[in-house]
Amino acid sequence: MKQATMEKPGNIRFEDVAETPPGEGEVRIRVQQIGICGSDIHVWHGTHPFTPYPVIQGHEFMGVVDAIGPCVENAPAIGTKVTALPQIVCGHCNPCKKGRFNICENLKVRGFQANGCGREYYNIPAERLVVLPDDFSADQGAFVEPVSVAVHSCNRAGDLKGRNVVVLGAGTIGNLIAQLAKARGAAKVLITDIADYRLDVARQCGVDYAINTSRESLKDATTAAFGDGGFDLAFEAAGVEASLASAIKCIEKGGMVLIVGVYGKPPVVDMGVVGEHEIVLAGSMMYWREDWEEAVKLLASSISIAPLVSKHFAFAEWPDAYRFIDKNGASTMKVMVDVQG
Ligand SMILES: [Zn+2]
Ligand SMILES: [Zn+2]
């Protein structure tokens, strides 16, 4: 089988290796398609702080069950479409004991601190599998992971019904959070970015207001959109200090700002305002299995992904996919790698 190993930043080696039979408790998946995510690009550039090399990347994928190892209970039938959670957790640290596996003290993520799915056949513990509907496209399957990120962050925010919501950053995750907020009954959803392309995609996905904050301030935009109603929930999905600072400044007193973005360097924010306005700052990190199960349902019903898929590359062109993203950053969303030609 073909396997793609990132030897060092900017260098992927493709090689033929023997496929191994699935071990005890494992299932072998024939990988069909992999989605590229922002953190993958950091690994390509050598700017991901927690990824040693060499590494086999890939954590957003769709494949089919190809072989079942010994001691697997309730195994899905051969040929079943599946994806899988990439987390490896210890099960005995304090967060794990409380069921919060996503923030395990010893968390490893496949594609980063462990090998991912960048190969034709991928062995993975059966308990990590998430079964997909028969009629799912490879795009839908590869989107379960990013949609789960959106599900988890919306769950952290509580009931969204009737609330005005701001999402800062209209990349894939911000877009999906905005769509999900609508699906969960938010009154009005306003999304911001500095790239018109991403804002157009958000409009195509039915987001109420898409604002370019390089031309209009968040304050003016939210006053125009929400009037006296204001907004009491913001998702910072840009990973940009200025957008976090503007959310803290403009949100209603007592509101909640959820941190979903990843920051290159620690952002500086006015904690005095956080204190005086009783603002709740909360984090959101990856997801739980329940989030994946809901993501599958959402992809089958209310979340549109077609406007988000920018381009497909063949498996052997994976490095070209990264170059394409580098060149077209502001006018690209999700890029896919087709492992099966
Ligand atoms: Zn991802
Ligand atoms: Zn743990």
Summarize the structure.
It is built from eleven helices and 17 strands. The protein is of the alpha/beta class and 341 residues long. Strands 3, 4, 5, 8, 9, 16 and 17 form a seven-stranded mixed beta sheet that branches. A six-stranded parallel beta sheet has the order 12-11-10-13-14-15, sandwiched between helices. Strands 1-2 form a two-stranded antiparallel ribbon.
Can you describe this structure?
The chain is built from eleven helices and 17 strands. The chain has 341 residues and is an alpha/beta fold. The mean pLDDT is 96. One zinc ion binds at residues 37, 59-60, 145-146.
SSE topology sketch:
Elements: E1 2-8, E2 11-16, E3 26-36, H1 38-45, E4 60-68, E5 81-84, E6 87-88, H2 94-97, E7 108-109, E8 121-125, E9 129-131, H3 138-142, H4 144-157, E10 164-168, H5 172-183, E11 188-193, H6 196-204, E12 209-212, H7 218-226, E13 233-236, H8 241-250, E14 256-259, H9 271-276, E15 280-283, H10 289-300, E16 309-314, H11 318-327, E17 334-338
Helix pairs in contact: 4-5, 4-10
The chain binds zinc ion (2 copies).
